[in-house]
Amino acid sequence: MPTRSREYHRPTDLPDALKLLRRRDVRTIPLVVGPKPPPNPYAEAEAVVDLSRLNLAYVNPTDNGIIHIGAMTPLQDLIDSPLLSSQANGLLPHATQHVAHYGLRHLATVGGAVLSREGPPEVLLALLALDAIVALRGNGRRGMALPDFLAADAAPGEMVAEVNFRRLPETKVGGALERVARTPRDEAIVAAVAVVELADGGACRSARVAVAGAGLRPFRATSAEKLLEGQLLDDDLLRRAAESVRSASSPVGDYRGSADYRREMAAVLAQRALTRAWERAK
User: Fold this and answer.
1) Is the full-model pTM beyond 0.85?
2) pLDDT in tens, 97-116
3) Would you tell me the crossing angle of helices 259-281 and 235-248 to the nearest 10 degrees?
4) CA dihedral (96, 98, 100, 105) positive or negative
5) Whether the Cβ atoms of residue 33 and residue 107 lie closer than 8 Å to each other
6) What is the DSSP string of 264-278?
7) 43 exposed, middle or buried (CB, 10 Å; 0-12, 13-18, 19+)?
8) Most buried among 148, 156, 253, 275, by the most CB within 10 A?
9) Which of 188, 80, 67 is nearest to 130 (CA)?
10) Burial class (CB in 10 A: 0-12, 13-18, 19+), 184
11) 252 phi/psi in degrees, rounded to 5
12) Buried b or exposed e, range 91-109, using 16+ CB within 10 angstroms
């Protein structure tokens, strides 16, 4: 339980929740669960706001071609979603399987995964590669590209309401996740995700590469993406893209892997992910 908390709120509508979060006289934070909850995430909070009754658990497509995922959607719902399974070879459901065990996936939410700065990176990587936008609610509404959100976070009094991304065609698009860990169930030391979309002539319409474990936070390898877009892909071009990922990496070593190891694995895994995504898009 929060060690300094003196208030617990469970509002049933969003305006009431936002009113509580905007208070300046009481340090109030939303109650969310990520895939790797820290030991005492609410130690400094004076009040917490439970968001579970705000109807923010959903995976919905819209007529304008956008998929909306509510912030309180349990991670297990991503795995169970037929819609998400149709996107980039089920990239997001597959990534979600790696971040927590079955029981925790029913408690941890998409919002918790987006807000988490530690722990398994696979959901964040998949969302980065899908060009996800984080929808924030506070004094108004605004959207932030996920890379910008990871660098800046939400403003005081704001909350993550949902994430959304463009619905991809079910053909000529491939997605892949590659990771290295001490065991298959351990947290990834380094991981890479790629999404490749091909044009009718076979050239690369768009490429997205996201890497974790080779920098302070998961990041998009935009230099590698630009190298591939508009080109007819081949093994040599993918190797050059991997070299670009290596150059963009700035890892910090720890007991699980040195900086040099992480930098090399970022390139290796990015090339593997790009190759698999390309093959699946054909």
Assistant:
1) yes
2) 999 999 999 999 999 999 98
3) 140
4) positive
5) yes
6) HHHHHHHHHHHHHHH
7) exposed
8) 275
9) 67
10) exposed
11) -115, 125
12) bbbbbbbbbbeeebbeebb
